[in-house]
Every structure is written in C-alpha cells, then in structure tokens.
Amino acid sequence: MTIVKVGLIQASNDLHGDEPVEAHKRLAIEKHMGLIREAAAKGAQMISLQEIFYGPYFCSEQKTKWYAAAEEVPNGPTTRLFQELAKELGIVIVLPVYEREGIAAYYNTAAVIDADGAYLGKYRKHHIPHVAAGEGTSGFWEKYYFKPGNRGYPVFDTAFAKVGVYICYDRHFPEGARALGLNGAEIVFNPSATVAGTSEHLWKLEQPAHAVANGYYVAAINRVGTEAPWNMGEFYGQSYLVDPRGSIVAIGSRDQDEVIIGEMNKELIREVRDAWQFYRDRRPETYDSIVSL
After folding, report:
1. Is 101 part of the annotated catalytic residue set?
2. Is 59 a catalytic residue?
3. Is the pLDDT of residue 291 over 90?
4. Hey, what's the torsion of the CAs at 213, 197, 153, 179, to 10 degrees?
5. Which of 51, 99, 186, 258 is catalytic?
6. Which member of 169, 204, 211, 222 has the lowest number of beta carbons within 10 Å of its beta carbon?
7. What's the mean pLDDT in 215-219?
8. What is the average per-residue pLDDT within 224-228?
9. What is the number of alpha carbons within 13 Å of residue 270 lying toward its C-beta?
C-alpha cells in the first residue's frame, strides 16, 4: 500500500476540572469514539488522538486526585474498548493514556492498536517537563505525575505503515526522533497538549525539521480551547501532517474540535531518503559527548 490516509483528532475538554475523574473520562471517551468514527468515514486508516485524551490537561495542577485516571496498558478498560473499535472499523489507533504499572508507577503512554484490534505495544514518554506556564501556579507539572519512559523508541509494524510515537515535550529533543528513524519509522505521531505563549513559535519548526532530517512523516496533534479552573493558556490546535520534505500536507484550525485528514505517500519516503543520504552520512562514532552525563 503506497498511499495511506491519516486522521488526526483535536478536541476541547468539555467539563470543568473540578468535576470527578470518572465524569471526565466517560464524556471524553464517548466524544472521541464519535470523532474516530467520523475520521474512519472520511477514509482514515491510521488515527491518533491527543495527549492523555480522556480528560483535561490535569498536569496544570499537582493533586493526587488525577492518579485515579491512570489505567493498566493493555489490560485497562480504555485500551480494550478502543481495541474493539479498531477491529470494528479496520483502522490503526494511536491511543495516548495515563498508565499505571504495579502499585504506584505512572507513565505518560500511548498504546498502538492494529487494524485487526491487536495490541502491538506501547511508547512511554521519555522527556518529562516541569515548568511554569501562564499566570499564578499553573504549569506543565508532569514530574508530579509521570516517571520517564523506560521502553526505548519502538516502531510498530501496523497494517498500513511502520509507526513510531513521540509524545509532546519529546519533540524538543532530536535524539529520540532520530532513533525512531533508525528503527524504521515511516510516520511518527506526536500527541501533544501545548499552549500559546509557550511553544507556538516552535510548533511548525521542530517537527517539519524532524521529518526532513529523518525522511519520514510526522503527525502532530494538539488539543484546543482553554481549561478551567487553571486557564493557563489557549491550547492552539493546528494539528498537522508534514511530509519528509517538510511540507505541511494537512492542518487543522486553531480553535475547533476537528478531524484532520491527510495522505502519506510511502514512495515519497524512499525518494527523499535516496536524494538526501542523511543516514549514510551520519557519524555516530563522533557523537559520544551528547550521550554522556
């Protein structure tokens, strides 16, 4: 299969952050299942949701309340539910969730589900931010909620393409993006939650650069709207698919719940890699200093 249709789903959170965790999850899951069905009806074969899709970006505050949102992966109810949906629709789903392992180890995770409903594996976010944003006490307080990823940079051989995942803040680090390319990725999904005034200038710079440097497609997904009670900034949407030449194939609006559909051409990946021999001309024997502590 040379041409693959990719669906990116950006959405607002519809409940106030003070509402119970289960209310957030129930409403968001229902909403995103509808959006996935819409994307599939438009021909999408691979679909990704935004970072921790089933609620607000709760890392704006530091409260133990949100630990209740975490589930096992793949044995939690959300992963199982979306496995059934993927099988029904014959689509690949990249499913970003809050993962709990064992008694109290928590990760920012994305499960990758194949078009037959099979769970292929998971990626755990490696780079964990802990920085202020907006006014008051809000911020990206992720070290309160997540351990750093410990499963490397896997690439999943799905029914339609070889898929890698890099989550939000990871995109600021070129090393993992290169590792995904070396591991065979044809497309890298980057589910995100990021606000204006912090990262917007970089949003359309870094990921096209990763696409060009590594000769693959990048699918960048961001949520939309502002989220009370924190109101730390506007999640500015503009989810997009970018090709290995750095050209944006499809892009969403700034402020609307939306299904974005773009086409990836796997022949273009080979064409670009043949023209720009970045993998051939790498000098890994000279890079020791960037991996030393």
Report:
1. no
2. no
3. no
4. 20
5. 51
6. 204
7. 98
8. 97
9. 4
Catalytic residue among 168, 206, 227, 258: 168
Tokens of 193: 């939650």
pLDDT digits (tens, 9 = 90+) for 172-184: 999 999 999 999 9
Instruction: Tell me which residue of 25, 127, 28, 111 sits closest to 72, measured CA to CA.
Output: 111
d(CA 22, CA 65): 11
**227 a catalytic residue:** no
Which pLDDT tens digit goes with each residue over 129-140? 999 987 788 999
Residue 193 pLDDT exceeds 90: yes
Sign of the Cα pseudo-torsion (145, 152, 219, 110, in order): negative
Structure tokens at 83: 């496995």
Residue 46 makes CB contacts below 8 A (sequence gap 6+) with: 4, 5, 6, 7, 91, 92, 93, 94, 158, 160, 161, 163, 187
- Alpha-carbon torsion, ordered 253, 255, 257, 261, to 10 deg: 10
Residue 197 pLDDT: 85
The strand pair at 217-222 and 187-192 is best described as: parallel
pTM: 0.97
Q: Which two tokens stand for residue 35?
A: 């959006």
For residue 130, the model assigns a pLDDT of: 96
Residue 81, pLDDT > 90, answer yes
CB count, 10 Å around CB of 247? 12
